[in-house]
Amino acid sequence: MFDILVAGEINPDLILSGNVLPEFGQVEKLVDRATLAIGSSSAIFACGAARLGLRVAFIGVCGEDIFGRFMLDEMQKRSVDVTNILIRKDGQTGLSLILNQDADRAILTYLGLIPALRVADISDALLRQARHLHVASYFLQTNLQPDLPALFRRAHSLGLTTSLDTNYDPSEKWIGFDELLSATDIFFPNKTEALSITKTNNIELAGKQLAKKSKFVVIKLGAHGAALQTNDEMISVPSIPVNIVDTIGAGDAFDAGFLYGYLNHWELEMSLRLGVACGALSTQASGGTTAQPKLDEALAFLK
User: Fold this and answer.
1) 138 closest CA partner among 158, 156, 163, 155
2) Residue 199 region, left (φ>0) first, then alpha (ψ -120 to 50), else beta?
3) CA 13 to CA 152: how far, in whole Å?
4) Which of 233, 244, 246, 301 is the most buried if burial means most Cβ atoms within 10 Å?
5) Exposed / middle / buried, residue 14 (Cβ in 10 Å: 0-12, 13-18, 19+)
6) pLDDT tens across 270-281, in order?
7) What's residue 28's pLDDT?
8) CA–CA gap between residue 194 and residue 168 (Å, rounded)
9) Residue 108's beta-bridge partner residues?
10) What pLDDT, on a 0 to 100 scale, did the predictor assign at position 60?
11) How far apart are CA 263 and CA 282, in angstroms?
């Protein structure tokens, strides 16, 4: 029934854009723009994959509040199936406040129900409806962490492939991955995450170390494109030139593009190129989903 099942966190982003720095002491500063947008790495990824034409289902936890309703409505508008999302009347949906400054950003996150999803919430019956299982925001989904390797192995036993995008570790410890990565088909770190997890300062060495654990390691390099490492080789592709407005969700749009190619049995380099195109094109508007491309829009840049 679905190409991808996403097990993830749910929160909107309140995005403030302007060339300012916040300052305590009751100092008021003005920003240029404010946007309430779909947030969470998992939800942005789900919307990007659906935009490309993949059938996407989502399972996560949100509250019965204004932020939860906003996320459910916006994901449905983008053709993401939300019927399996768990709504808790006694909890609050998480929220991220993001201050954009040029190509950089600062993020403050209220977790709320972000960590609430558990592996026990994800049934075999639901897994059997999908071809692939994607998990993002590993470090924020603390109730999912302990049993995630077992979930990935269960997904494999039911015929699914698996992918993981950890996102940043707020504790900066970067530990506890060996068992999980061995059950992960595609690992999607960015450069900072890959270097931090392997405790190296060389991206090629980091890729080789990680590829000893996961089947494919796809490292996002921002303006420098992306690289894919297997046990045998590294494939690198450059980025494409775009006018950057907002980099929020670019990595998630990249993941969606790569998985579109992978699930449709494309060659790895072409899947990597589609990921790069989707990631770059998504930066041309504020918010993680506004500029996510349709398949034909992304393919135009591959040609």
Assistant:
1) 163
2) left
3) 29
4) 246
5) middle
6) 999 999 999 999
7) 95
8) 10
9) 97
10) 98
11) 21
Q: Using CA atoms in the order 230, 236, 239, 240, what is the torsion angle rounded to 10 degrees?
A: -110
- The Cβ-side half-sphere exposure at 296, using a 13 Å CA radius, reads 0
pTM above 0.85, yes or no: yes
Whether 294 contacts 51, CB under 8 Å:
yes
- What letter would DSSP give residue 220? E
**pLDDT, tens digit, for every residue of 95-147?**
999 998 876 778 899 999 999 999 999 999 999 999 999 999 999 999 999 99
Domains delineated in the chain: 2-10+40-92+115-302 (3.40.1190.20)
Structure tokens at 35: 């946007």
CA angle 301, 102, 13 (to 5 degrees): 85
Task: Pinpoint the alpha helices (H) of the chain.
Answer: 41-51, 66-77, 124-127, 148-157, 178-182, 191-198, 203-211, 250-263, 268-281, 295-302
The string of pLDDT tens digits covering residues 196-226 is 999 999 999 999 999 999 999 999 999 999 9
Whether the CB-CB separation of 16 and 5 falls below 8 Å is answered with no
